[in-house]
Amino acid sequence: MEDVKEIKKDKIAIVACSGASNTGQITNEVAKNLCKDAENFTMVCLAALPLGARTAMDKIENAKKIIVVDGCPIKCASQLKYTDKKPDIAFQIMEDYGVKKVSDPNAVDLEEVDKITKDVLAKIKNLSN
Ligand code: SF4
Q1: Mean pLDDT rounded to a whole number for the chain
Q2: Nearest-CA neighbor of 67 among 107, 5, 11?
Q3: Angle at which helices 110-128 and 22-34 pack, to 10 degrees?
Q4: Which residues line ligand 1 (CB under 6 A)?
Q5: Which of 66, 77, 94, 102 has the most CB atoms lying inside 10 A of its own CB?
Q6: Smallest Cα–Cα separation from 97: which of 42, 27, 18?
Q7: Model confidence over 5-43: pLDDT tens digits?
Q8: SS3 90
C-alpha cells in the first residue's frame, strides 16, 4: 500500500471557499472538476486549515503549487494563513469571471463552471511553464 504522505506530495493543492452562494459553490465545482485529475490535483478542506488539522496542513506543505478560488471579495480562502506559504494564484469568481453573487447556492450554471474550470486550468498550466 502506498504511503499516504507520498500520495499527497508534489500535487497542486486547490483551496476553494465553497461558500453559501452561487459563486461560492462555483468555486467548489471548479475544485471538484480539477480534482478529477487526481494524479496532479488535491482539494484541501478550507475549514480545517485555521484549525491546523494535519491532513490539510500536510497537503499545503507538500504542494508544488497552491491555488485559491474565492467566491466574492471577502476572499475567505485567500486570507487564511497557510503556515508560511502563499497562494501561487488566486481567483475570485465575481471579479475575474463577472458572475453576479446571489445567496442561492443552487443557482450554479454548469456550463459557466466548465468555462471557468478551463480558464483556471490554462492559467495554472502557464504558471508551470
Ligand atoms: S469568499 Fe465570499 S462566497 Fe466564499 S465563503 Fe467567503 S463570503 Fe462566502
Answers
A1: 92
A2: 11
A3: 50
A4: 17, 19, 21, 23-24, 70-72, 74-76
A5: 77
A6: 27
A7: 555 578 999 999 999 999 999 999 999 999 999 999 999
A8: strand
Q: What angle do CA 77, 83, 89 make, to 5 degrees?
A: 45
DSSP β-bridge partners for residue 85: 82
Atom 8 of ligand 1 has which residue's CA nearest to it? 19
Predicted TM-score of the model (pTM):
0.92
Residue with C-alpha cell 488539522? 53
Angstrom distance (rounded) from CA 35 to CA 12: 9
Q: How far is CA 33 from the centre of its chain?
A: 10
Q: Which grid cell sits at 73?
A: 471579495
Q: Which residue's alpha carbon is at the smallest distance from atom 5 of ligand 1?
A: 19
Nearest residue by C-alpha to atom 6 in ligand 1: 76
Contact status, residue 27 vs residue 19, Cβ threshold 8 Å: yes
